[in-house]
Amino acid sequence: MAIERQDALAAAPRGTLDPPQPGFFAFMRDSVGAGRLKGARERWIAPAALYTGVAGISELSWTTTGETLIALRLQGATVRDHNRPVVRSSGPGRGFALQPKGTPTRFLADGAITFGHVFLPDALLDRAADMENLPALSGRLRDDLSFVPARALHARLAEYLQRAFDEVAPATSLEMEGRALLLVDSLLRFHGPSAEREARPTTGLSPRQLGRVCDFIAEHFSEDIGLEDLAELTGLSSRHVARAFRQSTGMPPHQYLIGQRIDAAKRRLANTRASLADIAAECGFADQSHFTATFRKAVGFPPGAWRREHAN
């Protein structure tokens, strides 16, 4: 994530917390400082949390993780990991730390800091490993993956947090599931042999499977669709269906879903006098501003201007 994107994320306004809250999140919020949680109430398989610690991180926040999570320093003071004899520090491309469930969190920072967490449930870790014919990840995750050079994982985690807390164009559950699977895929590279996985060809969906998925999305585009919904239609796992759909169409499922929403909005803009707010609600957008931002990005014009050119 570029530094300007880090700054934008760190400066995002504080919002109302979404219950239920993971216990570890509540503890960190109370011990470190201001916190926000996203995805616990939605259908996200990997909720995210964002913290701002004005006083840094002290020994008062040391605890044992109740859930597996990945932490990422976004900006502020250098973070030091005191979990082992040789202290590791954060740096460029070395801002993340994997904290398996049940491990200590002995981190220190001497000044103000903004950082995020992504919570990874056992079911997600084990399902991803099973898809690659690897042993279950839960219970055997490495506890020494803090502040090591892993730029790809660092970038994926930064993008996950940026999308999780994007209030202008909120992410769909379908998008965040796909991003969570990418995160776990990066973790798999640290915990199992990758040569066989990388050599394995990726096949697309069969015409029948693709038709069922596309028809389902077209019929339910205004709803909060998840990868599990698509997996049930194809008999595949959510991880496999995401890969296979992209192989077949050239785009991830969430982009196809956004395309369906944009197409539906165009029809309403051209053929009805419905307000932009009503069209946004009918087509699955969070609100009018989300609709406007997404439409402008996809089409090149805001919906009002597009309507003036295409209204019947």
What does this structure look like?
By secondary structure, the protein is of the alpha+beta class. The chain folds into 3 domains: 3-190, Jelly Rolls, CATH 2.60.120; 201-250; 267-310, Homeodomain-like (Arc Repressor Mutant, subunit A), CATH 1.10.10. The chain is 46% helix and 12% strand. It has helices spanning 3-10, 23-32, 122-131, 151-164, 173-191, 195-199, 207-219, 227-234, 238-249, 253-271, 276-282, 288-299, 303-310; strands at 34-38, 48-53, 69-76, 79-81, 88-89, 96-99, 107-109, 113-119. Strands 1-2-8-3-6 form a 5-stranded antiparallel β-sheet, sandwiched between helices. A 3-stranded antiparallel β-sheet has the order 5-4-7, with no helix packed on it. A hairpin with a 6-residue loop joins strand 4 (79-81) and strand 5 (88-89). Helix 11 (276-282) crosses helix 12. The longest helix has 19 residues, at 173-191. It is globular and about 70 Å long. The N and C termini lie far apart (43 Å). The model is unreliable at 1-20 and 194-201 (pLDDT under 50).
